[in-house]
Amino acid sequence: MKKHILAIITLVIAGLVSSCGDFDDLNQDPTRPGGDSVSLVAITPTMQTQTHRNLLANGARLSGIVTQQWIGFDAQQVAFTSYDIGESDISNIWENGLYTGSMRDCNDMITRATAENATHTRAVAKIYMAINLGLATNLWGDVPYSEAFLGEQNLSPAYDSQSDIYNSIQTLLDEAIIDLATNDPLGVQGDLVNADWTATAHALKARFYMQLTKRDVNASTKALSEIALAFTGNSDQPIFNFEATPNGGNPLANFGLQRPNTMIIDPHFDNIMSTDPRRSFLMVPNTDGDQLYFESGNTDLFWAQLDSPSPIITYSELKFLEAEATQRTGGNALPILHAAIRANMEFIGVAEAQITSYLATITTSDLEVIITEKYKSLYGANPIQIWNDYRRTNYPTLVPNPNGMNGNDPSGIIPRRFLYPQSERLSNTNSYNNAITNQGGHLLDVDTWAYAN
């Protein structure tokens, strides 16, 4: 069945080509399926593929640069390292990756699946809508949702507040869990991810609850309740596998392949990994002593292969969420923290002796230790979650780039959000202006609601 589905997706995305611009590599297919005659089995893999590109393309690399895992070495990435990030530098993910890409497909799938009573396929569409909606609000704050997919009925959708977006995310996941409890003989049609979708939905609910620790005093308690219902090991992780081809490959690897050495490992991250046994799995030195995240032909770099995986959420992240929630509620987080680190090390292939030796050095589990270790463990899997944690907790300790003060970031702090795309400013002006007013400005140093002090 998997081979059959892969054959379908190969046909569906055969026309994928890289877009122009250093960060516009979402490879959204201009001939993506559309029209009433297209079946769910064809839309699902296209939606999943686009979502996982969204998670690891330009938004991810910008997030990794501002949190000092990567640094610009050449071309446009040098400007990004100095927070010179404008409204066009991340617009492709909004315009093509999300609102005419995966989110549109999710909305279409929900409508079709409802008509066909395909409840399990509808559940997965709702889970992926929650993932993409979370990505959008993490990057920008207030974003269109409730009016976003009305087509010609509303070409100027209002922006939902970030508070409402988080409520919508939790509602989508709750509805997915209910759908998955129903009888659906066809199961999830066209699914490319081998997952326990109910457990995955609970894991994602925990993630989104913990993103609101600055806004909800009960966030940790809520998250722990969800974690108890989530998956329980690396073997159960919901993983999307990219094809080992330039067109179908992991966006981080593709970027390294197409723009070699324009982005490398930041010295800060190199230093923080200096005694960590995962270091050689994440970076390799060149002849000048710089650390590269990608090296053509080097198969030891776990997250820099064309077929490197894209987890929806790793077991390691789930255990880090549990460790933080336990620490915040007064429990003993140290064994949970050890389990989180171990899960990541085992996943990428670190030897048992090295794991045991490293864990012996982790003797405390305060919030700084938990988030700093999570910063290391989420490398390559989900850079945007790392940026979320930094904005939420101020960990790990990062020093802003001394050259970071500019017109879009007048205070020179590590960016707190990205700018809405020019297309919204020009074509959805009233909603755009209302969102800016609601958030208190439209600059990189303006906090979103979730992470404001």
Sum this structure up briefly.
The chain is mainly alpha-helical.
Core attributes:
50% helix, globular, 453 residues, 4% strand, two-stranded antiparallel ribbon, mainly alpha, 8 strands, disordered N terminus
Mind explaining what this structure looks like?
With 453 residues, the chain is mainly alpha-helical. The chain has 19 helices and eight strands. The strands form four sheets. Strands 1-5 form a two-stranded antiparallel sheet. Helix 5 (91-116) runs antiparallel to helix 6 (119-140) and helix 14 packs parallel to helix 16. The longest helix is centred in the N-terminal third of the chain and has 26 residues, at 91-116. The termini are far apart.
Series of H and E elements: HHHEHHHEEHHHEHEHHEEEHHHHHHH
Q: N-to-C terminal Cα separation, in Å?
A: 49 Å
Biggest sheet layout = 2 strands, antiparallel
Proportion of beta-strand residues:
under 5%
What is the β-strand count?
8
Helix tally equals 19
Q: Low-confidence parts, pLDDT < 50 over ≥5 residues?
A: 1-23
Biggest sheet: strand arrangement: 1-5
What share of the residues lie within helices? 40-55%
Q: Rg to the nearest angstrom?
A: 21 Å
Q: Give the mean pLDDT.
A: 93
| SSE-based structural type | mainly alpha
> Based on CA inertia axes, which overall geometry fits?
globular
